[in-house]
Design a protein that fits this description.
Elements: E1 17-21, E2 27-30, H1 32-38, H2 42-45, H3 50-53, E3 56-57, H4 64-68, E4 79-87, E5 90-100, E6 107-116, H5 117-155, H6 161-192, E7 201-202, H7 205-218, E8 226-230, E9 238-239, H8 241-258, E10 263-274, E11 282-292, H9 322-332, E12 336-341, E13 347-354
Parallel strand pairs: 8-10
Antiparallel strand pairs: 1-2, 1-6, 3-4, 4-5, 5-6, 7-9, 10-11, 11-13, 12-13
C-alpha cells in the first residue's frame, strides 16, 4: 500500500445522520447531520435512552423500537434494512446495525444511520426524468428503423438499388443513434457510482485536437471555422484516449453546431485552482484545452447548470447528457472543467488534465 497521511473520518464530517447507542441502550454519539435531520440537539440526546432520543414510528403509527427490539430480539439478527419511518410526523430513512460481542452474543452497540427523504425524492425525480428522456430519444430512431425494415421486407422488389441503399443508410444511422444513447446511459451509471474506468496511457492533446478538427473538416465543416493555437512545450500527459476523444468530440460539436463564427481551440500548459465546498483548495498542474466560439453564448444565470443532467439551454433535441458526461470524465482523470464567456461573446469551455505519470507506474 502507498504511504501518505491518513486520518479517520470524524462522525461530524459524514453527510448522513449517525446515532450510536451503547449496550445499555443509551445514546453515546449523535452527529451534526443527525441534529439537522431530526431537529434535535446532541446535547439533549447524549445519555438518553435510544427510544426517547429517536421516538421513531412506522407508517402505521407503531413504535419502531418496540417492534424491532434490538437488545432483546433474536440473537442472530444483525440489524434492520433502510426503510421509511416517521419522526415527529416527518418521514426519514432509517437503517440500523447491531454490533455484537460475538456472533449470537449480546448487542454491544446499535448504530443508526438517518437520511432525509428529500434527497431520495430528488433521485427518484431524476431517474423518472432520465427514463422519460431516454424513451423519447429512443422512439424516433426505433420508429424509423422499424418503418424502413418493414417496408423493405414487404416491398423489396418494388425498389431499385439506389432507393434500397438510402433506406438502409438511414437504418444504419438511426441504429448508431441508439448505440450512442446506450453508451451515454452506461457512462452516466458509472459516473454516478464512481466507477468510471479510466485506462491511462500517454496522450498528445495537441495531436488529438488536430485529428478531431480534421475529422470535422472532412465531414463538411469549412476549415476556416477553426483556429488551433498550441502554446509552450508539451508536458508528459497521461489519460484515457477514448474518453478524452469523447470530451473533445462533445465540446467541438457543441461549438460548431450551437456557436457561430470562428471556433478557437487552445492547448498549452496550465495551473488551475480548484475549490470544492467541504474540501481544501488544490492546484491542478497539467495541460489545458480551451474551446471558444463567437456565438450568443450562454446566459450568466444558466452557467451553473451547464454540467448538470438534462441541461439543454434554449436548444431543441438531444438528451442534455453530454456535458454532464464530459465533466464526469474530466474529474475522473483528476482534472477540472469550467465554462465562461469568450472574448467574442460566445461560450468558452476550458478543461485541465493533471500532468505526470499514473499511479500504477509510481
Amino acid at each position: 500500500m502507498g504511504g501518505g497521511n491518513w486520518a479517520p473520518v470524524e462522525p461530524d464530517d459524514l453527510p448522513d445522520g449517525l446515532v450510536v447507542a451503547d449496550a445499555r441502550g443509551r445514546v453515546v454519539a449523535f452527529n451534526r447531520a443527525a441534529e439537522r435531520i431530526t431537529g434535535r440537539s446532541a446535547r439533549h440526546a447524549i445519555g438518553v435512552e435510544l427510544e426517547r432520543a429517536l421516538p421513531l414510528e412506522d407508517l402505521d403509527g407503531r413504535r419502531w423500537w418496540r417492534l424491532t427490539d434490538p437488545y432483546g430480539g433474536l440473537a442472530v439478527r444483525t440489524g434492520q434494512p433502510e426503510r421509511n419511518l416517521l419522526l415527529d410526523g416527518r418521514e426519514v430513512l432509517v437503517c440500523a446495525r447491531y454490533v455484537r460481542e460475538r456472533p449470537g452474543g449480546p448487542v454491544r452497540q446499535v448504530v443508526v444511520t438517518l437520511r432525509g427523504t428529500e434527497a431520495r425524492r430528488r433521485t427518484e425525480r431524476s431517474h423518472a426524468e432520465l427514463i422519460a428522456t431516454v424513451a423519447h430519444e429512443l422512439r424516433s430512431p426505433l420508429t424509423s428503423v422499424k418503418g424502413f425494415t418493414a417496408t423493405l421486407l414487404a416491398k423489396w422488389e418494388r425498389f431499385n438499388d439506389g432507393q434500397k441503399r438510402v433506406m438502409l443508410e438511414t437504418v444504419d444511422a438511426d441504429a448508431d443513434r441508439v448505440v450512442r444513447l446506450i453508451a451515454e446511459l452506461l457512462d452516466i451509471s458509472r459516473i454516478d457510482a464512481g466507477r468510471l474506468e479510466i485506462r491511462k496511457q500517454r496522450i498528445d492533446l495537441a495531436a488529438a485536437v488536430h485529428r478531431h478538427v480534421a475529422g470535422k473538416v472532412a465531414a463538411g465543416t469549412p476549415a476556416e471555422r477553426f483556429d488551433i493555437k498550441v502554446a509552450g512545450p508539451p508536458v508528459e500527459q497521461w489519460g484515457d484516449p477514448d474518453k478524452i476523444d469523447q470530451v473533445l468530440a462533445n465540446l467541438l460539436e457543441n461549438a460548431v453546431r450551437h456557436g457561430e463564427g470562428t471556433v478557437t481551440i487552445e492547448v498549452g500548459p496550465a495551473e488551475e485552482l480548484v475549490e470544492v465546498p467541504g474540501t481544501p483548495p488544490r492546484v491542478v498542474e497539467g495541460t489545458a484545452v480551451t474551446v471558444s466560439d463567437q456565438g450568443a453564448g450562454i446566459p450568466e444565470e444558466a452557467m451553473p447548470r451547464v454540467f448538470t443532467r438534462f441541461w439543454r439551454g434554449s436548444r431543441r433535441g438531444g438528451t442534455g447528457l453530454g456535458l454532464y458526461i464530459v465533466k464526469g470524465i474530466v474529474e475522473a482523470h483528476g482534472g477540472v472543467i469550467r465554462i465562461s464567456r469568450a472574448e467574442g461573446g460566445g461560450a468558452r469551455f476550458r478543461f485541465v488534465l493533471p500532468a505526470g505519470v499514473p499511479d500504477f507506474m509510481l
